[in-house]
Amino acid sequence: MRVLIAGAGVISTVYGAHLARAWHPVSVLSHPPRTEDVTRNGLIAHDVHEGSRTDARVSVAPDVAGTLFGLVLVAVRSDQLAAACSQLTGLARSPAVVFFGTTPGGGRRSAVRSTLMSCSGSPAWAA
């Protein structure tokens, strides 16, 4: 299953690295400057409890319009959500989309839901 990751923070890195190590082709949606590092080094997830490390080579996707993914993981701050959603428009077919609730600074759930509705036009995305 092809996986697209929107966001390049801790949550995205952990999920993306482990999915790639499980032989799923993973692409990270371009979001400089972090994705420049991802292009060079891949995703590196550190397990602070066990002291282990998971390294995975992934691709960086500057444009995903018309591309087929089975799963899209969106892990961005609430203030980055509208920009991330606009980059996801035009995906081929209807992939499963999982949003991780990252709303620092008191991001209101209703504001996040409203952004999701305006990006997708579908109540199913904002459930």
Please count the helical segments: 4
Order of helices and strands: EHEHEEEEHEH
Structural class: alpha/beta
Describe the main β-sheet briefly.
5 strands, parallel
Principal-axes shape call:
globular
Q: What gap, in angstroms, lies between the N and C termini? A: 23 Å
Please give the order of strands in the largest beta sheet. Answer: 5-2-1-6-7
The beta-strand count equals: 7
Helix content: 25-40%
Unreliable parts: 121-127
Radius of gyration: 14 Å
Strand content: 15-25%
Mean pLDDT: 83
Describe the model.
With 127 residues, this protein is an alpha/beta fold. The protein contains four helices and seven strands; from the N terminus they run βαβαββββαβα. It has helices at residues 10-21, 34-41, 81-88, 109-120, and strands at 3-6, 26-29, 43-47, 52-56, 59-61, 71-74, 96-99. A five-stranded parallel sheet has the order 5-2-1-6-7, sandwiched between helices. A two-stranded antiparallel ribbon has the order 3-4. α3 packs parallel to α4. The longest helix has 12 residues, at 10-21. The radius of gyration is 14 Å and the shape is globular. The protein starts with a strand and ends in a 7-residue tail after the last helix.
